Amino acid sequence: MAPPSLITDGHALARLVDRLDDVDRYALDTEFHRERTYWPHLALVQLAWPEGPGEPSAVALIDPLSVDIRPLSGLLSTSATMVAHAAEQDLEVLDRACGRVPQRLFDTQVAAGFLGHGSASLSALTSQFLGVRLRKGDRLTDWSNRPLTEGQLTYAVADVAHLLDLADVLTAELNEAGRLAWAEEECEELRRRPAGPVAPDRAWWKLRDARQLRGSARGVAQEVAAWREWRAREIDQPARFVLPDLAVQAIAHGQPTTVAALRQMRGLDSRHLRGSIPAHILAAIGRGQALPEEALQLPPAEEVDRDMRPAVALAAAWVAQLARDWRIDAALLATRADLVSYLRGDETSRLAEGWRATLLGQPLGRLMGGEAALAFNGRGRLVLEARSHRPIDPAS
Question: Which residue of the set 31, 186, 229, 338 is catalytic?
Fold first, then answer.
């Protein structure tokens, strides 16, 4: 493999984007930090592309601390497929830095999940499928330091150098197993998923006791958590630095009306109540207490009616059996939330469309309709079979 190109000026980046204008796919990874910030701070972009048949991928490392990264949107806007591993955060970073995400995506972690490798690391997959062992010693390095060390450069190159070869192997195996279309559909769903932070008026859903709040406490939680989210964005600090979750919960329950009462809330100290902050929090409390019912953003229900709970347990057991039988990551087939959504009759349920509707939704519909039953096959496996309509009375 040729030494990687290090892109540190706009002219070099423009030449690279032009060079990749006619490729049909490229590999991409990012390095960023967000431990002490609200927004991810991009520190490096790694790109790899095929130089020619049978040749190793060429690699370029783009330094966003030295060059405006936005022209990279020209590559993202082409019809080429971006190959990445565990791409969800990369998509968020690209959307913020370049204003767009790629037109097509192939995620090697998602693809491997359809071959029985749930949430597998890149190093595990390259070792198993390519016989290549990646160096991971610099994974937790500080990518904002300059100059980058040899160890950092080696690590950064390794994260993209083998992605295209890995995608080829996974594609071949998925095609042979008849699951390539499933993986492609899942990658497209990931690509289209909204990137970035939660909407401020739904930030309170992440509170531990959100679903147990009642009355005006829900409105107060919504407004205080929304203010915290906006404040965190404004000063670019994690929301927990602005107000800890415990403080938001305490405020929602206690609903203080004075600064003195606010200072007595659990989870708050002088760091959180400087300057005009107490006034902003009290104003948010007031808005929450007056929030009309129609403006309240309630978290989605996690459960079905009590009578349907056994159905969720049955469906989950069947999905787990299918995941073992088919060697597919069970979370890719259906999460518990997917099952609850489907059994509640939600039209937007993932089990109501695409390949999941055929493989899971329709059989579950027959199970819920009494046309099918789950049974052990005598060898420890659960099977879905036509119902005999002859129920067994345990008392007989």
Answer: 31
Active site residue 31: yes
306-386: CATH number:
1.10.150.80
Measure CA of the first residue to CA of the last residue in the chain; give whole Å.
74
**Domain regions of the chain by residue span:** 5-192, 200-295, 306-386
Alpha carbon distance 149, 130 (integer Å):
27
Active-site hit among 159, 165, 184, 186: 159
Is 329 a catalytic site residue?
Answer: no
Catalytic residue among 26, 29, 63, 107: 29
pLDDT at residue 227 is higher than 90: yes
Categorize the per-residue pLDDT at 56 as very low, low, confident or very high, splitting at 50, 70 and 90. Answer: confident
Per 3-state DSSP, the chain is made up of helix, strand and coil in percentages (nearest 5) of 50, 10, 40
Active site residue 138: no
396 pLDDT exceeds 60?
no
Q: Domain 5-192, CATH 3.30.420.10 — does that match?
A: yes
* Active-site hit among 63, 92, 107, 155: 155
Please, which pLDDT band fits residue 3 given cuts at 50, 70 and 90? confident
